Amino acid sequence: MAASAACAQQPSAQGPAQIPKTTAKTLAGIEVTIPESGASGLLLVVIAFSHKGGTQAEDWNKRIAAAYPKDAAVRFYEAADLESVPSLVKGMVLHGMRSGTTADEQARFLLIEKDGQKWKALVNYSAQDDAYVVLATASGSVLWQTHGAATDPAFGELQKQIEQHLK
Q1: What is the pLDDT of residues 128-159, one digit of tens each?
Q2: DSSP sequence for the chain
Q3: For residues 42 and 136, is the Cβ–Cβ distance under 8 A?
Q4: Residue 15: what pLDDT?
Q5: Residue 71 vs residues 19, 67, 101, 151: alpha-carbon distances, Å
Q6: Could you give the domains of the chain?
Q7: Spans in the chain with pLDDT lower than 50
């Protein structure tokens, strides 16, 4: 499936959309809260709501990690919505995720176990098997978002947005 057209986030009467305040553990077991108060730079989150969406998110992750390795100006997280995964299956899912993920990737891989509906509302969730990409200020104000595969045009637009907002 081709990536959907990227869309600039349009401010509403209440201002720009906000990333929901989320506290989650990473695959490495570290508790993280995003957005993080007092942080600077940009916040980039790639979230998946299904196994197939996770495959797309992995593709985005590889491109982002190669382009912005340990870049302090771009805090990046890959995330999986596990809220609806039954507890009996969750252990197997987590084991599979850990076995295919490096230590560096595990430290920035968020396990969303609550607030999944807030994330779906934020990204205008419409395609279960897509990855959703959200670029925001460090304080969580959404600057840009898209969903779908990490195609060359979609990734190029993300890079353009990052460069534009870092200036």
Answers
A1: 999 999 999 999 999 999 999 999 999 999 99
A2: -PPPPPEEPPPBTTBS-BPPPEEEEETTS-EEEESPTT--SEEEEEEESSHHHHHHHHHHHHHHHHHSTT-TTEEEEEEEE-TTS-HHHHHHHHHHHHHTS-HHHHHTEEEE-S-HHHHHHHTT---TT-EEEEEEETT-BEEEEEES---HHHHHHHHHHHHHHH-
A3: yes
A4: 63
A5: 21, 9, 20, 22
A6: 25-166 (3.40.30.10)
A7: 1-13
